[in-house]
Design goal:
globular, nine-stranded mixed sheet, about 325 residues, Rossmann fold
Length: about 325
Protein backbone atom coordinates (compact mmCIF):
# COMPACT_ATOMS: atom_id res chain seq x y z
CA UNK A 1 0.00 0.00 0.00
CA UNK A 2 1.42 3.39 -0.94
CA UNK A 3 2.17 6.12 1.57
CA UNK A 4 -0.20 8.34 -0.39
CA UNK A 5 -3.07 6.25 0.93
CA UNK A 6 -2.14 6.79 4.56
CA UNK A 7 -4.22 8.95 6.87
CA UNK A 8 -2.03 11.79 8.05
CA UNK A 9 -1.56 12.48 11.75
CA UNK A 10 0.78 15.40 12.52
CA UNK A 11 3.64 14.49 14.83
CA UNK A 12 4.40 16.29 18.07
CA UNK A 13 6.23 19.52 17.15
CA UNK A 14 9.82 19.74 18.30
CA UNK A 15 10.93 22.34 20.83
CA UNK A 16 11.51 25.73 19.25
CA UNK A 17 13.33 28.80 20.52
CA UNK A 18 10.15 30.71 19.73
CA UNK A 19 8.07 28.63 22.18
CA UNK A 20 6.50 30.62 25.01
CA UNK A 21 7.96 29.92 28.45
CA UNK A 22 4.91 27.95 29.60
CA UNK A 23 5.17 25.57 26.61
CA UNK A 24 8.88 24.99 27.19
CA UNK A 25 8.12 24.25 30.84
CA UNK A 26 5.44 21.71 29.85
CA UNK A 27 7.87 19.94 27.53
CA UNK A 28 10.55 19.72 30.22
CA UNK A 29 8.03 18.38 32.73
CA UNK A 30 6.82 15.76 30.26
CA UNK A 31 10.39 14.59 29.61
CA UNK A 32 11.07 14.26 33.33
CA UNK A 33 7.80 12.44 34.01
CA UNK A 34 8.32 10.06 31.12
CA UNK A 35 11.78 8.97 32.23
CA UNK A 36 10.47 8.49 35.78
CA UNK A 37 7.22 6.60 35.37
CA UNK A 38 8.13 4.30 32.44
CA UNK A 39 10.81 2.70 34.66
CA UNK A 40 8.87 2.86 37.94
CA UNK A 41 8.51 -0.40 39.88
CA UNK A 42 9.93 -3.88 39.50
CA UNK A 43 7.23 -5.39 37.26
CA UNK A 44 8.09 -6.98 33.91
CA UNK A 45 7.86 -4.53 31.04
CA UNK A 46 8.41 -4.16 27.33
CA UNK A 47 9.88 -0.86 26.16
CA UNK A 48 8.18 -1.15 22.79
CA UNK A 49 9.70 2.07 21.48
CA UNK A 50 11.16 5.32 22.76
CA UNK A 51 7.56 6.48 23.24
CA UNK A 52 5.76 3.33 24.41
CA UNK A 53 6.11 1.04 27.44
CA UNK A 54 3.90 -1.92 28.37
CA UNK A 55 4.00 -3.13 31.99
CA UNK A 56 2.67 -6.48 33.18
CA UNK A 57 0.84 -5.37 36.28
CA UNK A 58 -2.54 -5.10 37.92
CA UNK A 59 -3.93 -1.63 37.29
CA UNK A 60 -4.71 -0.82 40.93
CA UNK A 61 -1.31 -1.90 42.19
CA UNK A 62 0.50 0.13 39.53
CA UNK A 63 -1.60 3.25 40.05
CA UNK A 64 -0.96 3.11 43.80
CA UNK A 65 2.77 3.61 43.21
CA UNK A 66 2.41 6.30 40.56
CA UNK A 67 3.14 9.94 41.50
CA UNK A 68 0.18 12.32 41.58
CA UNK A 69 -0.46 14.45 38.48
CA UNK A 70 1.76 12.33 36.24
CA UNK A 71 -0.60 11.25 33.42
CA UNK A 72 -2.27 13.54 30.88
CA UNK A 73 -5.04 11.33 29.47
CA UNK A 74 -6.49 7.83 29.56
CA UNK A 75 -7.87 5.85 26.61
CA UNK A 76 -9.03 2.35 27.47
CA UNK A 77 -11.36 -0.50 26.59
CA UNK A 78 -11.76 -2.41 29.88
CA UNK A 79 -13.31 -5.80 30.53
CA UNK A 80 -17.03 -5.05 30.56
CA UNK A 81 -17.81 -7.50 33.35
CA UNK A 82 -15.54 -8.63 36.14
CA UNK A 83 -16.31 -12.30 35.51
CA UNK A 84 -15.32 -12.12 31.83
CA UNK A 85 -11.64 -12.16 32.61
CA UNK A 86 -11.54 -14.26 35.75
CA UNK A 87 -9.42 -17.39 35.43
CA UNK A 88 -12.32 -19.80 34.90
CA UNK A 89 -14.13 -17.85 32.18
CA UNK A 90 -10.97 -16.68 30.45
CA UNK A 91 -9.86 -20.30 30.16
CA UNK A 92 -13.23 -21.15 28.56
CA UNK A 93 -12.78 -18.26 26.13
CA UNK A 94 -9.40 -19.57 25.00
CA UNK A 95 -10.78 -23.10 24.59
CA UNK A 96 -13.78 -21.80 22.65
CA UNK A 97 -16.28 -23.26 25.11
CA UNK A 98 -18.18 -20.18 26.09
CA UNK A 99 -18.68 -19.62 29.79
CA UNK A 100 -19.91 -16.02 29.90
CA UNK A 101 -18.56 -15.71 26.35
CA UNK A 102 -20.96 -16.39 23.49
CA UNK A 103 -19.37 -18.12 20.51
CA UNK A 104 -21.22 -16.77 17.44
CA UNK A 105 -21.72 -19.09 14.51
CA UNK A 106 -19.72 -18.89 11.33
CA UNK A 107 -21.59 -17.54 8.36
CA UNK A 108 -20.90 -15.81 5.05
CA UNK A 109 -17.50 -17.47 5.10
CA UNK A 110 -16.43 -15.49 8.17
CA UNK A 111 -15.46 -17.04 11.48
CA UNK A 112 -16.76 -14.80 14.27
CA UNK A 113 -14.81 -14.16 17.45
CA UNK A 114 -16.34 -14.71 20.90
CA UNK A 115 -18.32 -11.85 22.40
CA UNK A 116 -19.29 -11.55 26.08
CA UNK A 117 -22.86 -12.19 27.23
CA UNK A 118 -23.37 -9.25 29.55
CA UNK A 119 -26.96 -10.18 30.45
CA UNK A 120 -25.68 -13.03 32.64
CA UNK A 121 -24.29 -10.65 35.27
CA UNK A 122 -26.04 -11.03 38.63
CA UNK A 123 -26.90 -8.18 40.99
CA UNK A 124 -23.85 -9.03 43.08
CA UNK A 125 -21.61 -9.01 40.01
CA UNK A 126 -22.95 -5.63 38.95
CA UNK A 127 -22.17 -4.25 42.41
CA UNK A 128 -18.67 -5.72 42.15
CA UNK A 129 -18.30 -4.14 38.73
CA UNK A 130 -19.29 -0.74 40.12
CA UNK A 131 -16.89 -1.14 43.04
CA UNK A 132 -14.00 -2.12 40.79
CA UNK A 133 -14.44 0.82 38.43
CA UNK A 134 -14.83 3.15 41.40
CA UNK A 135 -11.41 2.00 42.60
CA UNK A 136 -9.93 2.52 39.13
CA UNK A 137 -11.53 5.96 38.90
CA UNK A 138 -10.15 7.05 42.28
CA UNK A 139 -6.68 5.92 41.22
CA UNK A 140 -6.92 7.81 37.94
CA UNK A 141 -8.30 10.92 39.64
CA UNK A 142 -5.13 11.12 41.72
CA UNK A 143 -2.65 10.37 38.96
CA UNK A 144 -4.11 12.44 36.11
CA UNK A 145 -3.11 16.08 35.80
CA UNK A 146 -5.91 18.61 36.43
CA UNK A 147 -8.05 18.75 33.30
CA UNK A 148 -6.89 15.34 32.09
CA UNK A 149 -9.48 13.37 30.12
CA UNK A 150 -10.57 9.74 30.32
CA UNK A 151 -12.07 7.97 27.29
CA UNK A 152 -13.52 4.64 28.44
CA UNK A 153 -15.34 2.13 26.27
CA UNK A 154 -18.49 0.40 27.43
CA UNK A 155 -21.66 -1.06 25.93
CA UNK A 156 -25.33 -0.03 26.09
CA UNK A 157 -26.21 -2.62 28.75
CA UNK A 158 -23.81 -1.60 31.50
CA UNK A 159 -22.47 1.85 30.53
CA UNK A 160 -24.66 3.45 33.20
CA UNK A 161 -22.92 1.41 35.92
CA UNK A 162 -19.41 2.11 34.64
CA UNK A 163 -19.94 5.80 33.96
CA UNK A 164 -21.70 6.41 37.26
CA UNK A 165 -18.69 4.99 39.10
CA UNK A 166 -16.47 7.64 37.48
CA UNK A 167 -18.89 10.45 38.29
CA UNK A 168 -19.22 9.33 41.92
CA UNK A 169 -15.44 9.31 42.22
CA UNK A 170 -15.19 12.99 41.34
CA UNK A 171 -14.79 13.12 37.57
CA UNK A 172 -16.83 15.50 35.43
CA UNK A 173 -18.76 13.77 32.67
CA UNK A 174 -18.06 15.60 29.43
CA UNK A 175 -20.18 13.54 27.07
CA UNK A 176 -19.85 10.34 25.11
CA UNK A 177 -18.31 9.33 21.83
CA UNK A 178 -20.71 7.11 19.93
CA UNK A 179 -18.99 4.60 17.70
CA UNK A 180 -21.45 3.52 15.04
CA UNK A 181 -20.74 -0.15 14.47
CA UNK A 182 -23.05 -3.07 13.83
CA UNK A 183 -22.18 -5.96 16.12
CA UNK A 184 -23.52 -9.46 16.70
CA UNK A 185 -24.93 -8.50 20.10
CA UNK A 186 -28.71 -8.70 20.36
CA UNK A 187 -31.37 -9.29 17.74
CA UNK A 188 -31.71 -13.00 18.49
CA UNK A 189 -35.01 -14.86 18.59
CA UNK A 190 -36.12 -16.55 21.82
CA UNK A 191 -33.72 -19.41 22.58
CA UNK A 192 -35.37 -22.80 22.07
CA UNK A 193 -38.44 -21.22 20.47
CA UNK A 194 -36.96 -19.56 17.41
CA UNK A 195 -39.47 -21.04 14.94
CA UNK A 196 -42.50 -20.57 17.17
CA UNK A 197 -41.70 -16.88 17.68
CA UNK A 198 -39.89 -16.13 14.44
CA UNK A 199 -41.08 -12.50 14.42
CA UNK A 200 -39.69 -11.79 17.91
CA UNK A 201 -36.26 -10.49 18.97
CA UNK A 202 -35.31 -10.72 22.62
CA UNK A 203 -33.48 -7.37 22.46
CA UNK A 204 -32.39 -4.92 19.76
CA UNK A 205 -29.38 -5.65 17.59
CA UNK A 206 -26.63 -3.36 18.86
CA UNK A 207 -25.42 -0.86 16.26
CA UNK A 208 -23.47 1.51 18.48
CA UNK A 209 -20.81 1.53 21.18
CA UNK A 210 -20.61 4.25 23.86
CA UNK A 211 -17.27 5.68 25.03
CA UNK A 212 -17.66 7.82 28.15
CA UNK A 213 -15.66 11.05 28.29
CA UNK A 214 -14.64 12.29 31.73
CA UNK A 215 -12.40 15.11 32.92
CA UNK A 216 -10.53 15.68 36.16
CA UNK A 217 -11.77 18.97 37.68
CA UNK A 218 -9.47 22.00 37.80
CA UNK A 219 -9.55 25.59 38.98
CA UNK A 220 -9.53 28.64 36.73
CA UNK A 221 -10.11 28.84 33.00
CA UNK A 222 -9.36 26.22 30.35
CA UNK A 223 -6.70 28.52 28.92
CA UNK A 224 -4.98 28.84 32.29
CA UNK A 225 -5.06 25.07 32.76
CA UNK A 226 -3.68 24.41 29.28
CA UNK A 227 -0.73 26.64 30.06
CA UNK A 228 -0.18 25.08 33.50
CA UNK A 229 -0.88 21.38 32.80
CA UNK A 230 -1.35 20.98 29.03
CA UNK A 231 -4.84 19.58 29.59
CA UNK A 232 -8.47 20.62 29.87
CA UNK A 233 -9.70 20.40 26.28
CA UNK A 234 -9.71 18.13 23.24
CA UNK A 235 -7.53 18.43 20.15
CA UNK A 236 -9.45 19.70 17.15
CA UNK A 237 -9.48 17.91 13.81
CA UNK A 238 -8.49 21.13 12.11
CA UNK A 239 -8.72 24.89 12.41
CA UNK A 240 -12.36 24.87 11.29
CA UNK A 241 -13.39 21.44 12.57
CA UNK A 242 -13.76 20.32 16.21
CA UNK A 243 -13.50 16.76 17.45
CA UNK A 244 -16.96 15.19 17.09
CA UNK A 245 -18.85 12.74 19.28
CA UNK A 246 -20.10 10.38 16.56
CA UNK A 247 -17.59 8.21 14.68
CA UNK A 248 -18.71 5.64 12.15
CA UNK A 249 -16.27 2.74 12.18
CA UNK A 250 -16.78 -0.82 11.00
CA UNK A 251 -15.78 -3.85 13.12
CA UNK A 252 -12.12 -4.80 13.32
CA UNK A 253 -11.12 -6.94 10.36
CA UNK A 254 -8.01 -8.47 8.87
CA UNK A 255 -5.14 -7.75 8.84
CA UNK A 256 -5.55 -6.24 12.32
CA UNK A 257 -7.28 -9.30 13.79
CA UNK A 258 -4.54 -11.50 12.37
CA UNK A 259 -1.85 -9.28 13.92
CA UNK A 260 -3.51 -9.13 17.34
CA UNK A 261 -6.09 -11.90 17.97
CA UNK A 262 -7.58 -10.26 21.05
CA UNK A 263 -11.33 -10.91 21.58
CA UNK A 264 -12.25 -7.22 21.86
CA UNK A 265 -9.68 -5.58 19.59
CA UNK A 266 -10.66 -2.07 18.50
CA UNK A 267 -9.65 -0.91 15.00
CA UNK A 268 -6.76 1.50 14.52
CA UNK A 269 -8.98 3.71 12.38
CA UNK A 270 -11.09 4.47 15.44
CA UNK A 271 -8.44 4.39 18.16
CA UNK A 272 -6.11 6.83 16.42
CA UNK A 273 -8.89 9.43 16.27
CA UNK A 274 -9.74 9.11 19.96
CA UNK A 275 -6.11 8.98 21.09
CA UNK A 276 -5.25 12.05 19.03
CA UNK A 277 -8.11 14.05 20.55
CA UNK A 278 -7.12 13.16 24.13
CA UNK A 279 -4.07 15.47 24.19
CA UNK A 280 -5.21 18.99 23.26
CA UNK A 281 -1.69 20.38 22.67
CA UNK A 282 -0.38 17.24 20.98
CA UNK A 283 1.91 16.51 23.92
CA UNK A 284 1.73 14.56 27.16
CA UNK A 285 1.49 10.94 28.32
CA UNK A 286 -1.48 8.69 27.56
CA UNK A 287 -2.22 5.67 29.74
CA UNK A 288 -4.22 2.52 28.98
CA UNK A 289 -4.89 0.61 32.23
CA UNK A 290 -6.32 -2.41 30.35
CA UNK A 291 -3.84 -2.50 27.50
CA UNK A 292 -4.63 -6.01 26.22
CA UNK A 293 -3.05 -6.43 22.78
CA UNK A 294 -1.40 -3.00 22.96
CA UNK A 295 -3.64 -1.46 20.31
CA UNK A 296 -3.96 1.87 22.17
CA UNK A 297 -0.17 2.05 22.50
CA UNK A 298 0.14 1.32 18.79
CA UNK A 299 -2.34 4.08 17.94
CA UNK A 300 -0.38 6.57 20.07
CA UNK A 301 2.87 5.51 18.38
CA UNK A 302 1.32 6.12 14.96
CA UNK A 303 0.43 9.67 16.01
CA UNK A 304 3.67 10.39 17.86
CA UNK A 305 2.42 10.44 21.47
CA UNK A 306 4.05 8.92 24.53
CA UNK A 307 1.99 6.14 26.06
CA UNK A 308 2.01 3.60 28.89
CA UNK A 309 -0.06 0.45 29.20
CA UNK A 310 -0.65 -2.11 31.92
CA UNK A 311 -2.28 -5.52 31.90
CA UNK A 312 -1.92 -8.48 34.24
CA UNK A 313 -2.46 -11.17 31.60
CA UNK A 314 0.87 -12.72 30.50
CA UNK A 315 -0.51 -13.86 27.13
CA UNK A 316 -1.66 -10.36 26.22
CA UNK A 317 1.65 -9.01 27.47
CA UNK A 318 3.42 -11.27 24.96
CA UNK A 319 0.86 -10.53 22.24
CA UNK A 320 1.41 -6.79 22.54
CA UNK A 321 5.16 -7.13 22.05
CA UNK A 322 4.60 -8.95 18.76
CA UNK A 323 1.68 -6.78 17.57
CA UNK A 324 2.95 -3.31 18.45
CA UNK A 325 5.00 -2.49 15.37
CA UNK A 326 2.70 -4.12 12.80
CA UNK A 327 -0.31 -2.25 14.25
CA UNK A 328 1.44 1.09 14.68
CA UNK A 329 2.85 1.02 11.15
CA UNK A 330 -0.46 -0.03 9.60
CA UNK A 331 -1.37 2.35 6.80
CA UNK A 332 -5.05 3.28 6.70
CA UNK A 333 -6.92 4.26 3.57
CA UNK A 334 -8.70 7.63 3.72
CA UNK A 335 -12.42 7.30 4.41
Amino acid sequence: MSHAAQISFPRIPETSQDDPLWLSALRRREETLWETIRTLGVQRRHHLSERATYIQSDVLKWLADLPANSLHAVVTDPPYGMIEYDEKNHAKLRKGRGGVWRIPPSFDGAKRRPVPRFTVLSKEEILNLHGFFSSVAYGLLRTLVPGGHVFIASNPLISTTTFHAFMESGFEKRGEVIRLVQTLRGGDRPKGAEKEFSDVSVMPRSCWEPWGIFRKPFEGTVGDNLREWGAGGLRRLGEEEPFKDVIACSPTRSPEKDIAPHPSLKPQRFLRKVVRAALPLGMGIIYDPFAGSGSTLAAAEAIGYRTLGTDSDPEYFAMAKAAFWPLSSLQLKPE
